Amino acid sequence: MRNLNQDNITQAVIARFADTPDPRLKEIVTSLVQHLHAFAREVKLTEGEWFQGIDYLTRTGQMCDAKRQEFILLSDVLGLSMLTVAMNNDKPQGCTEATVFGPFYVEGAPHYELGDDVANGASGEPCVVRGTVRGIGGEPVAGATINVWQADDEGRYDVQRPGLQGSQGRGELTAAPDGSFHFRTIVAEAYPIPTDGPVGELLQATRRHPWRPAHLHFKIDAPGYETLITHVFRDGDQYLDSDAVFGVRQSLVADWTPLPDGSHALVYDFVLNPAR
Questions:
Q1: Residue 13 lies in a domain
Q2: Looking at the chain, which terminus has fewer C-beta neighbours within 10 angstroms, N or C?
Q3: Do 240 and 212 meet the contact criterion of CB atoms below 8 Å apart?
Q4: Is 97 part of any domain?
Q5: How far is CA 146 from CA 43, 126, 138, in A?
Q6: By the 8 A CB rule, do 149 and 212 touch?
Q7: What is the Cα gyration radius of the chain?
Q8: CA atoms lying within 13 Å on the CB side of residue 109
Q9: Helix, strand, or coil here: 116?
Q10: What integer pLDDT is reported at residue 1 of this predicted model?
């Protein structure tokens, strides 16, 4: 088709995808084209702004590697991550709510025995974490694989420390036959998401703060159950109502209880949904 203009180009582009064999891919691409073109028309996008946008996305991709996922971070601060989580995790009442994955999960975390110290030298006040993993019917989920990871008291994950040998504040455990688990770590503290890349530029330009409330990440897998990706947030944190990535759910807020020896304790039980 020749003589395309701003009035007919959208339908011409959609027509080029008409023979897409995968119906779901065709649906997504068609809708994406429609919404992108509608966005450009709505804001009257200039060529200079388009070039700026391409440069921004290029630099976002250049910030991504095995230890840092800037595109996930961008999705997080735009609320897209949490919207997708909410749409795809409509669980029965009583199941533990899911929240955002975050950009600092690492495959192959070291395995620890129950009771071990997963902090492994990370700086922070000592803390013991314990709880159970159960199904929606109350049955214990024996042998559930529990991945945990967190920032230290300086607000940095181990992968943000160049030259660090091994892992800190990160590990994998296996739930006991009764579904219970316990391990030692450090107290969760609030921290800012990374602002040294394009996402930080966006936050600065829009006068948004980068802070996340104190939390501990969990990823729990077990045969016959849906994978749970969630956080447990520290009650009383000043950023619970303004989380930079919109991830807080009231049901995920818990107390870090002070103990006589100066350490803290977190007790939290997880309820998994059967696999669909």
A1: no
A2: C
A3: no
A4: yes
A5: 46, 20, 18
A6: no
A7: 22
A8: 27
A9: coil
A10: 66
Q: How many structural domains compose the chain? A: 1
What's the one-letter identity of residue 101? Answer: F
Asked, for residue 45, whether it belongs to a domain, the answer is: no
198-230 tens-digit pLDDT: 999 999 999 999 999 999 999 999 999 999 999
For residue 35, what are the CA distances in angstroms to 28, 32, 60?
A: 11, 5, 22
| pLDDT value of residue 19 | 97
Q: What share of the chain is helix, strand, coil (3-state, %, to 5)?
A: 30, 25, 50
pLDDT of residue 104: 85
Supply the pLDDT for residue 55: 98
| Segments forming the whole domain that contains residue 140 | 93-272
Q: Which residue stretches of the chain are H helix?
A: 9-16, 23-43, 47-62, 70-77, 80-88, 198-205
Distance CA 233, CA 212 (A): 10
CATH of the domain at 193: 2.60.130.10
Residue carrying the six token digits 């533990």: 96
Return the amino acid letter for 41: R
User: What span, in angstroms and rounded, lies between the C-alpha atoms of 85 and 247?
Assistant: 10
Place 161 in a pLDDT band, splitting at 50, 70 and 90: confident
Quick: pLDDT tens for 96-110. Answer: 999 998 878 889 999
Residue 112's pLDDT is what?
97
Give the span between the Cα atoms of 270 and 134, in whole angstroms: 6
Has residue 78 been placed in a domain? Answer: no
The number of angstroms, rounded, from the C-alpha of 86 to the middle of its chain's C-alpha atoms is 12
- In 3-state terms, what secondary structure has residue 127? strand
Taken as a whole, the chain contains a residue count of 276
Which residues have C-beta within 8 Å of that of residue 17, sequence separation ≥ 6?
A: 26, 29, 30, 33
